[in-house]
Amino acid sequence: MDRKRSVKNLLSAGLHKLRTRDDDTFAAGDRQARVIAVAAQKGGVGKTTTTVNLATALVAHHGQRVLVVDIDPQGHVASALRESLRPGTVTLSEVLLAQRPRDLMEAVVESAIEGLALTAPDKRLNETDAQLTSRVGREHILSTALATARTHFDTILIDCPPNLGNLTLNALMAADEVLVPCDLSILAFEGVADLLGTVETVNLRLRHDLQVLGILRTRVDVRTRTINETIGDALIENYGELMLDTVIPANSALAKAQACGLSIFQFQSRSRGAVAYRALAGEVVARRAARGAGAQTA
Question: pLDDT tens digit string along 113-130?
Fold first, then answer.
């Protein structure tokens, strides 16, 4: 009996040490981040461009501390900010696939832009999506991993893959709100309905409370006025108050900035693209303040 008790005590002590080591690795901060998933069903609508430039606008013009979590296997966030990227040692897939819960802060690296942190690019995320299928509670893994990070940042932006796989589901379950970029094309318009349907399903079946921050019109080319008006009017008619006021124009400076591995504010801060993303950051901050005020009076 004494031997059994001794073994039990040793096991308990070992587990306690593991919990203490993990819990003490990253102390909680004093912030309360808002987590925004940037998601779209169709690729090429400016999802990563929006993630990167909204993040840098919040840092530069609103004094926020921002984390960008790149959960898209294409790793375009790292490409778009490669001049500011610093190497990391732990990848996002290692955190998501760990047998025991791991803290996402292990995969966070500070960028050369003060106030902006990133997760490193991770090509293994392609395999991760499939491997998550067999995990118990797979849709909650990212949410759990983000617990400490929420206390160290004001805003966390998650750049999602252009599909509704396990990685996107994790992002939606980890997020407080979803921002939906949509260029003025038929396929992107149809993709908005699919994504909003998924948000509704997530809320109903998984008992989440994911809000729609807004639908953002992107890559709007003034030369295609007829299609702009047709799709734009359809978006407003179908989604009304979900539409953001800000419109992101088709702007060559945005593409050139991405090619150079810089944010639009580093590349050409007075371009139309920079003006638009500065306006978007202001609208996002204003909506957060309005919702916070509404919650207090409710």
Answer: 999 999 988 889 989 999
